[in-house]
């Protein structure tokens, strides 16, 4: 029946409404949203990433659950609340329930900065709106009670064309995927209903990437639902209701509904009548999955109810909403109001504090400045920042600024006069030397490279070009020609030449031979001293550490290795510096010392024609020494800043040390420094400057002037052979303006911002290229013309008109040098050549040549070891191997002969010995009884004892009790284990060989459940009588399942009541950003009270994690440093980097302690690699058919490797041998986002945790026997198996979750005090049988 059918005349009104709304479309048209916008009187939420509206007082309180609320707040991130929001990191990435009341039509990390969408909200009492809301509610709730519902108030919030937060690089445009949705709260005196409306094409992205993902690409689906929040002073969780739980369920929001109208969702959310939880509408399409579940922390709380209603698969329109894994460059096109400190500071805090909008940061600064807030904002809220001009905060911010000024400043009576201020600055403050832990944040991005640059060589000189490390090598023929001012000379004297030293030049430089030696010079479009070159016009980052030993007033303050980060906008000379976690007294006292950040301004200042900034002279290695004397107190401080080169991503590294005395600056005072000009004097290897500078302290009506004098010099190594060829002016003037210095007490960050240009001491009209007012793209060079004219030229690797530059795809345009069989991979501003599996780049040219197949004599049979029943072959990599005789044989491994244990007299003299190949047995002679090692006369019986050889591990039969024989009262009788052990030791002469079996007994003389064959690593389980438990014998590397923590496996595993907890010393290690945490186990329970930080790795982001039990070393991958590292668990051990090149995003890591090998995945390069544990013998196992490789695990005994690939189009789990042979897909059905993977050595199962399907599953190594352990996970990342439990890290809970293997129950969880995402996890055992193997 169509909606145009005449039969409609007889349909109920509500069904007619559905037909009218739907028409012939399958989704809600945008025009059917409730009216909104400025013409309707809506308020507009200010642009930003984490903004909150001013409080909205309601004309009449509304009921939410059982409570009436008279105020509402609207947040950027798709959420409404009855209270102000916490920081977004405390709720945006977390699942329901929230700690505060929440109404969430689309809870995700939304960012409206830069005009990307608008958020409207208002309260409405118009008949039109109330009637439309009532009709939609009645459509979903056709019951009599709901039909009678007539709202008297409505609150409407609309998110129009809003975008997801993303770190857009300067080389790419923001995503064009924008969402539109609406929330309507309609209520009367007794009931409240909520409507969520999702129009056709209104949802173009379905989730957002967490800010704390640390370069690991994870998208969290948006959360839709309701949460009551904490309900009482005990902070117990209230009820909550969730509509979505996966990406697919988010996609279904606009395609289906619970009201019969696609895209319209209705809920009863508050009532004076009993309402245990939110009640959804039940009309129309039924959800495919509707069930209740309870989170771990509230499993016993009947008040908690969660329902998932949108798991059905509906047709997808576009599933690829993920942004690129890595943005090779940070945003450079960040503009700021002339008087405001820029948002780039918060971008420096990429891995610590949440990013905030420029408007929010601006308001914070305005609260400290004496200028009127209104002078900084345009009159119209429609004005937004663009590349051509600074972004402006909307007028709505003025109220926030004024409020900040009123509430954020205290006015003590002691600060009412200028004299009192002087008194305070000399008296200081009470001593407080307490320090905080440093929370550093690494950087991302890279400096662009150019591989096809052909500089114009000066006439009469032969240049030797250097080549980028990431471009393919090729023939580098060299000529050595001497050059002097008079022409060519041929010099046979011994001197350094480019022939042997060109590698000392930057990859973006050429080498020139002079009469007295060689020098390096940067290529065209790059600048520097030749040994270090950076692209012109690009933005740069600096990292470093700051230490201080200061006396602030009369208070000593010390701090060590706190983080410094600087950001330089290269084409307009702006330099921003942030120093984190300086103690507050020192941080406030350091605010006037802008030369700390001023050094970076001089280094990268805009250059006027004929003048050079500091980096062009010094390069990346220099020492800056600064002496400062303050007046009137004559406090003196000395600052040393040392640069030690460029890092792998062209980041300059700086160490800063500050020592001396600083005048005290009281809290709440702001520091202002006027623009200044400073002369720098240049000699061959030093630059000096002397200046006198004033600064102003203001607070309310107080405005006091102070000053300091500074002497600074910068020393560096120049290149003597080229001195007479350089024409650097002896005196240059640095002009500095737009100077800001401030300290944020909440973030504990000291910041400087300055704009710099270098030129002559005479003033002239500034070209836009020099004062930063040009309109060139951030990937373009500004070329000054005459007067105020200029042109824009895209930097190397880009093309365009200079105002808009796009990356040149050298691969698609056949501009690369990649040769035979090689594959060209484009990257921003450059490209690289890669080879398919089985090939590698040739040493001298960019072509692929076959990789010689690795030789494994142990597998191909070319070894010279004895037969397999007498010896084993141990492969050491390449063609190296060794031979080891098996237990019961002796020899050098190549020749092994049976050990005749009977000839050695190992049995009792009244026993018969029977030698067998590799073993022996003892049996008491007739008339004796015993175990063969100890026989006693029997009374007429023919009792006999039997002891089987160690290969069967069968102990002697129990000895019957002797009633007439008593042991001395002070000594207990020897147990069977002790007698057996003593007998064997006597037969071995007291010193058994390393391969001979000796029973292991505990302190009470009982058999240890785990018995091993000497130190060979071959082990088995025994029962209480010492008899071997069949089927438990294992090979070196993995202990059998007979530890006290686990019963031997049965057909249907179940916990044994007599099993004792695992041995003390077992613990978990987990990665949490820049630290590795320690979480001990008591049995399988988490000892949360004893958890602590094991390693603090400032500047690192630890993802993959594993442990080598042989050498007691923990290994990890670092996606920030792009390295693989390790550290001993012994006290005082220092971390060690073992792989530091050729990595982009190393994630998963696993250790094969038997072969002394490690394996890792790189999801940036789409590779799986292996290397020895010291980093040697590195090679690529796989670099094809991989899209997003993540987790990796190894079965060391069987020599199998397993890994996951969460390719959204075709996720899979694969396996191969540890040498890369026999690659095949293990699982590719019914998986979504397999983040975590572990091999369980006890059950021999491969198990994975899937953040897409929410399941924990296991399968046999051949892919059969697949079963689900748990089907209701949150967002697992990494997983490890230990005893009868799995332990996984979870991104929703930000903790470690314990899951019972047998029943799938969530048994425990640990939530670190510092809440941020956890990554890799591994278990550390107190034993390592494989560690006893000695490879010869």
UniProtKB/TrEMBL annotation:
It comes from Chrysemys picta bellii. Residues 538-768 form the Nidogen G2 beta-barrel domain. The gene is NID2. Keywords: Basement membrane, Calcium, Cell adhesion, Disulfide bond, EGF-like domain, Extracellular matrix, Glycoprotein, Repeat, Secreted, Signal. It is found in: Secreted, Extracellular space, Extracellular matrix, Basement membrane. Residues 404-415 have a biased composition (Polar residues). GO terms for biological process: canonical Wnt signaling pathway; cell-matrix adhesion. It comes from the Eukaryota. Residues 1-27 form the signal peptide. Residues 105-272 form the NIDO domain. One of its GO terms (molecular function) is calcium ion binding. Residues 765-806, 807-849, 854-897, 898-936 form the EGF-like domain. One of its GO terms (cellular component) is basement membrane. Disulfide bonds join 1012-1019. LDL-receptor class B repeats lie at residues 1112-1155, 1156-1198, 1199-1243. Residues 356-417, 950-976 are annotated as: Disordered. This is Nidogen 2. Residues 974-1042 form the Thyroglobulin type-1 domain. InterPro entries: 6-blade_b-propeller_TolB-like, Cueball_EGF_LRP_Nidogen, EGF, EGF-like_Ca-bd_dom, EGF-type_Asp/Asn_hydroxyl_site, EGF_Ca-bd_CS, G2_nidogen/fibulin_G2F, GFP. It holds the Pfam family Thyroglobulin_1.
